[in-house]
Each structure stands twice: as structure tokens, then as C-alpha cells.
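User: Run a structure prediction on this.
Assistant: Running it now.
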Amino acid sequence: MAATATFTCVCGVQKKVSNHWILAKCTTARLELMPWDHYLALEDDIIVLCGERCATALLSRCLGDWKQADSVSVANEPMLVGA
């Protein structure tokens, strides 16, 4: 018997037959949104999203993470002192 993968969005909704699902990949400097691909969705670094609302929430979270990381890196930079 073949195994069937079950895909669940970050909000908890399980994928059925609808085709409006999208995939995302978020790194420290980049957010990629991709159309649904069954095989790509199986990869560990891919985030499964059920639609526009969850994609927007992920974008907001990534922007917040980037802003926080940027403020930390600026705070850790040495100050230049004029002679």
C-alpha cells in the first residue's frame, strides 16, 4: 500500500483537493512564495500555506524578524569616533 502525505498549513487546516495552496521558504534575508507543488511541499525547509491570509501573516512575521535582526546588528556595530 502506498503512503499518502498529509499537508497541514501553519494555521492547522489540512489540505484537501483545493488548489489555492501555496508554498513559502523564509530565510534571514529572503521570503520566497511558490505555487503548489506536491514534491516541493515534502521538503523540510518549505512552509505550507493554505491561502492568502496565511501568506500575509508569514510575510508580516518575516518582516518583523528582519527588522529585529537589523536593529540587533546595528546595535552591535562599533561606533566611529572622529579625531
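The chain is about 35% helix and 15% strand.
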